[in-house]
Every structure is written in structure tokens, then in C-alpha cells.
Please model this.
Amino acid sequence: MHLTIQGLNNTLSSNTALIQDIASQTKAKLVQLNAKAVRLDNAECDEQALSGIRERCFAAQLDVTALDKQLAMTDFKLVAMDMDSTLITIECIDEIADMQGLKPQVAEITEAAMRGELEFQESLIRRVALLKGLDASALQRVYDERLQLSLGADQMLKTIQQAGVKTLLVSGGFTFFTDRMKSRLNLDYTHSNVLEIENGKLTGKVIGTIVDADEKQRTVERVCAEMGIPTSQAIVMGDGANDLKMMKISGLSVAFRAKPVVRAQADVALNFVGLDGVLNLL
Model:
């Protein structure tokens, strides 16, 4: 296997002994990629040993990725990303709800849906219904005052775009935000939910097909078909249970600051480093 170990700031350099011990244990060749990442080439480890390595690295706030082959940027033609808590740091619907004084109630439903305890369509309908009567200007306030890109998002996007890789933002959130992210970040494709607005106020309803786990998967498949590529040439990034279906059809699935159910099923789990941590794997 090829094990990539990376950490924020000086986490890597302060755990030199741990990394050397893992290299020795797995009889691997240690390759320094940069100040924040190393790769252990041709590491010998079974699932039990790998599980132990993951635990030790997690305790040291290091991300470890095990791949059975060395990947290159040229292996991929599309990066598909979830938006809320993946490309950006917030859950937009929770922040919109905060303008109604309803953030705790809405955030509780959001969390349950992301953990996979609540069906996404039902959770979205319930949450949006709570927003009925809110002035639509609250959406702009959330965008202006609260929306921030996740750590490493800028660097990751610039690098993949320079390499000619296309980008898709597919979200269970809302077009108000995905449209703005598309123009701001020069993204190629977006797909998300449309909030119904009448007389400048939210009606508490969503227009059209709800972008749930199945619709996310269909969107990745549709965009790949339009591009004339197999889904194995897509990298898919997400954090919640509603991202799992689109992650499963990808060539490389990346769980970013994700719920345990998602981390357990992804090829890559970035718990500590930024989104640009995926670049160290290519």
C-alpha cells in the first residue's frame, strides 16, 4: 500500500518519531512530499495493522490515507463537491434559521440527517417549513456575514482547475448560495434546491425535485455522461450521509470533517488538514 500521512502546521514535524516507527513497522520507503505531508511507499500492512496506524495517527491529529496504487491528477477529469460543511464551513439552512431565532431546532434536524438517522427529503421539508414568512433578504445576510470557504478550498480549486479538471457543486442546500459560489469560484456545474419566494418572503416550500442522496448520485452520473467520462474518473467530496451514494460511484471518495458513518466508508478521510490535503494524494 501507499500510506500518505499529513497534518496541519507543525503537527507532522512534531510527530517524526511516530512516522518513523510506522515506516519501520510497515517496511515502507519514506518519501517527504512537503512540510506537511509524507508518503510511505510499498507499506506492508493488513487491515488490523492499518486500523492501529489510523488510531495512532488520529490521536496525534494526523490524517492517514491508504491507497493500493499511486494516483495522479491525470487519472481524474471531475471533482464533485457537497457545499455545506464541505466546500464552505457553515450549514446555510441553520444560519438562515438563526435569522428566525430557530437555529437550535433546525440544526438538530440537520445533524440527525447528516448522521443518517433521518431521511434527507423529510428533514429538508421539515426544516424549510420552519422558515415560512422569513424575509428573503436574510439569504443575502447569511452569504455576506457568515459564509466562508473551508480551509484549503481555494488552493485545491486553483490547482485542479489549472490541471483542466472540471468542477461540480451538488448540494442539498439552495441555489441562492450555489449560484453565487459558481460565479465566485469559476465552477463548471452546480445543482441544488430552489427555495420558493413570494412577495419577498420565504413560503416554507422547495420548488421541484429535492436534491437528496439519489439526486446527488444522478447528478454526478449525468455530468460524467455529458463529459463523456466514466464515474471512476470523478473525485467526490462530502461530509454527510446524503453524500454516500455519489461517493460510492466515484473513483476516489473524500470525507471532509465528516460524520463517522461517512468516514468509515470513504477512501480518504480528511479530519484535520484542509481540502487541499487531497492534492498530496495525487
Notes: Residues 1-70 form a domain with the Alpha-Beta Plaits fold (CATH 3.30.70.870). The mean pLDDT is 96. DSSP finds eleven helices and eleven strands in the chain.
